[in-house]
Write a sequence for this structure.
């Protein structure tokens, strides 16, 4: 609180603040992205028919060297849907929190959030609620295909949060995960093995989703 009170123009970063920022960047930027790749590989191994569809979409979009342009990458609907569905089932940040800066009345619900009160938003529970997603625990990327996106209810899909404090790395993260899948899937196939746990088990490490073990086999195509 003391450091926030200083005039921003005169503010200099201390060594502790620099270390804290670097640490948050690794945790917020690296752990989340690698988790998404891990859970995505896991679901593709369990759903080979979806992996086959994705493979076809990828090989029909890359050039003869197996490379892809930024514009082309953004245009692959199934790749986008597979990653969105992975982030629905496995949101790295399982709950969001906010602290009210002022009293806030929630329309005609009769509920007022008082100034200073903390509000927890249970992202994981919302993402897996039958109220918003049919067969909520099932991996079904088609929910996020362009023809179905209009069925999504606002604020029920929050893998990157929402509002002024949402994730600043979202576009970069999505591009990174897409590019990694394009390069891996055109050369390898993810497969279920005897060591693949179904269902996954989690550590009690809220607010981050952390499975005890995500093992998938990899076969060369
Ligand atoms: C799949 C990858 C990622 C996921 C799922 C993710 C998720 C999130 C979520 C849920 C929040 C909190 C948003 C809120 O409270 O409304 C957040 C904040 C943040 N993320 Fe990400 N993130 C990812 C990748 C990245 C990357 C690559 C970076 C940086 C290079 C990054 C940097 C940040 C930062 C700095 C914040 C804090 C923003 C603020 O408080 O104003 N994230 N992220």
């Amino acid at each position: 609180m003391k450091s926030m009170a200083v005039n921003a123009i005169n503010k200099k970063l201390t060594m502790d603040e620099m270390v804290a920022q670097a640490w948050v960047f690794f945790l917020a930027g690296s752990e989340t992205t690698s988790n998404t790749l891990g859970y995505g590989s896991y679901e593709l191994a369990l759903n080979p028919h979806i992996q086959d569809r994705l493979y076809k979409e990828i090989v029909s979009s890359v050039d003869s060297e197996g490379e892809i342009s930024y514009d082309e990458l953004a245009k692959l609907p199934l790749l986008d849907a597979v990653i969105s569905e992975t982030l629905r089932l496995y949101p790295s940040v399982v709950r969001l929190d906010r602290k009210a800066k002022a009293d806030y009345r929630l329309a005609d619900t009769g509920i007022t959030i008082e100034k200073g009160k903390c509000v927890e938003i249970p992202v994981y529970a919302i993402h897996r609620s039958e109220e918003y997603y049919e067969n909520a625990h099932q991996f079904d990327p088609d929910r996020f295909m362009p023809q179905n996106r209009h069925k999504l209810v606002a604020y029920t899909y929050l893998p990157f949060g929402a509002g002024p404090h949402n994730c600043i790395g979202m576009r970069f993260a999505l591009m990174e995960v897409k590019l990694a899948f394009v390069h891996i899937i055109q050369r390898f196939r993810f497969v279920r093995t005897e060591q693949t746990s179904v269902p996954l088990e989690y550590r009690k490490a809220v607010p981050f989703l952390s499975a005890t073990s995500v093992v998938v086999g990899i076969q060369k195509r």
